[in-house]
Specification:
single chain; 290 residues; alpha/beta; Rossmann fold; seven-stranded parallel beta sheet; 41% helix; globular; SDR_fam
Length: 290
């Protein structure tokens, strides 16, 4: 114990990486922030389970990690499917020789609508995706976190500034992302005292992903019943706002963040550098909304 505290106190030296020997599940890691998080975790020595609804993208991400000298497997499936969650936990535990150390609940998308036009389906799908699925994953993984082996355990739930401040046109997403904060704090209070599990939320602001790209680019996701949901922001909506120079004036850094910057924040929270940070919401916004 004293050796570990000495490292944390300032004698930081991780020749095999800050996450060496740890096994991490990262949902929605076939692309974007999730894929970057998987890459950075693997670079820091973690064995990574790439979980994504898109089997090819999950496989490609895992293959790229392995080709770079890391260790990863792809376990593709829909987090809204209870059978998949059971399979995900089982395969991760097998990959980790009976251990799981980190869960990053990152999978998700937006399905926007103004309040009076939001359908029950839009509401139920987004709440299930961003709240219920992460809860079920954490519940299923409980036997691997409620242990006393002296090894670090981390749960990181991904949120958004929409969940902190609300956002017009996103009542379903704002509610779901606000709920993530309460879930995170409850995990920290229940599993911290006896088992040393840390749980934190990372809330992103304007990050360059398919969710913030032009809707005309054609990115979409398909719901379990086959409905296509278009992603992104309409170009007309962007054009009607401030010009390129002015549109980031509410961000002190005057620019959006990159997927790598977003993923780096998740890595920081998972790392020993944040060993005494628990139950918090870390805003990654370039200073926006401070």
């Amino acid at each position: 114990m004293s050796n570990r505290l000495d490292q944390i106190a300032g004698h930081l030296n991780y020749p095999k990486g800050m996450l060496a020997g740890q096994v991490a599940i990262i949902t929605g890691s076939g692309q974007g922030i999730g894929a970057e998080t998987a890459r950075l975790f693997a670079k820091e020595g973690a064995k990574v389970v790439v979980a994504d609804v898109d089997a090819k993208k999950a496989s490609d991400t895992a293959a790229a990690i392995n080709a770079s000298g890391g260790s990863a497997i792809a376990v593709a499936g829909d987090v809204l499917d209870d059978k998949y969650i059971t399979e995900l936990i089982k395969k991760t535990a097998e990959f980790g020789n009976g251990k799981i150390h980190i869960i990053v609940n990152n999978a998700g998308y937006t399905w926007d609508g103004v309040i009076h036009k939001t359908t029950d389906k839009q509401w139920d799908t987004i709440v299930a995706l961003h709240c219920t699925a992460p809860f079920k994953i954490v519940r299923a993984a409980a036997p691997y976190f409620r242990v006393k082996d002296g090894e670090p355990r981390n749960i990181i739930n991904i949120s958004s500034t929409s969940g902190i401040h609300g956002n017009a046109g996103q009542i379903n997403y704002a509610l779901a992302k606000a709920g993530v904060t309460g879930m995170t704090k409850t995990i920290a209070k229940e599993w911290g005292p006896q088992f040393g599990v840390r749980a934190n939320t990372v809330a992103f602001g304007y990050i360059l992903t398919r969710l913030t790209a032009a809707k005309e680019a054609g990115a979409f996701v398909t719901t379990p019943d086959g409905e296509k949901v278009a992603l992104g922001i309409p170009s007309a909506q962007k054009a009607s706002g401030p010009n390129e120079v002015q549109q980031h004036l509410d961000i002190p850094l005057r620019r959006p963040g990159s997927a790598t910057e977003a993923a780096s924040a998740v890595l920081a929270v998972a790392s020993p550098l944040f060993s005494y940070v628990n139950g918090q919401t870390i805003s990654v916004t370039g200073g926006r909304n401070m």
